[in-house]
């Protein structure tokens, strides 16, 4: 995959087309490749059974992702005498989770960005299938900290206070061995706000 974390699209059609490229070699000529794919929508889980595509000679494939989607792909190869490789490890790509169309309650000030206030928590409007939460926050002297929860599970605290302005990435993971389907909440822990720049949910 060209990148794991797809950047927010500032305007226009909110759709991404990440490209998966692959190649194999052995002592015979490689004849074809087969791709498996698992895709989850904005709130959904990755399916346990992947979609499997026919064998093709092409060495690349495009995905089409909407906001909040995650797609994972694996590939195997076969050569001209019929030997078939094992499946590769899964490679995944994520599109950022939207805020501006009302997918997050308690904060709504941009398509991708939102601010968590001390006057009440922000949370997803619906349950989200989640194993990890990846968050980019604005940092600086005017920002505070917030706790992040997946349902009732406390995942950790993100401190956005800094002497200088900038941004910071944090990834918080649930303790569950399986993906949870819960509301994710963001609770300010001081009178200073926390400005979330980008949010991803990893299944």
Helix/strand layout:
Blueprint: E1 19-21, E2 30-40, E3 51-52, E4 60-62, E5 70-79, E6 91-94, E7 104-105, E8 114-116, E9 122-124, E10 128-130, E11 132-139, E12 145-150, E13 153-159, E14 166-173, E15 180-182, E16 184-188, E17 194-202
Antiparallel strand pairs: 1-4, 2-3, 2-5, 5-6, 7-9, 8-17, 9-16, 10-15, 11-14, 11-17, 12-13, 12-16
What does this structure look like?
It is a single chain. This protein is an all-beta fold and 203 residues long. It is built from no helices and 17 strands. It has strands at residues 19-21, 30-40, 51-52, 60-62, 70-79, 91-94, 104-105, 114-116, 122-124, 128-130, 132-139, 145-150, 153-159, 166-173, 180-182, 184-188, 194-202. The strands form five sheets. A five-stranded antiparallel beta sheet has the order 7-9-16-12-13, with no helix packed on it. It has a four-stranded antiparallel beta sheet with strand order 3-2-5-6, with no helix packed on it. A four-stranded antiparallel beta sheet has the order 8-17-11-14, with no helix packed on it. The chain is elongated, with a radius of gyration of 20 Å.
Keywords:
single chain; 203 residues; mainly beta; 5-stranded antiparallel β-sheet; 4-stranded antiparallel β-sheet; 0% helix
Distance between the termini: 17 Å
The secondary structure category is mainly beta
Number of strands: 17
Our estimate of the beta-strand percent is 35-45%
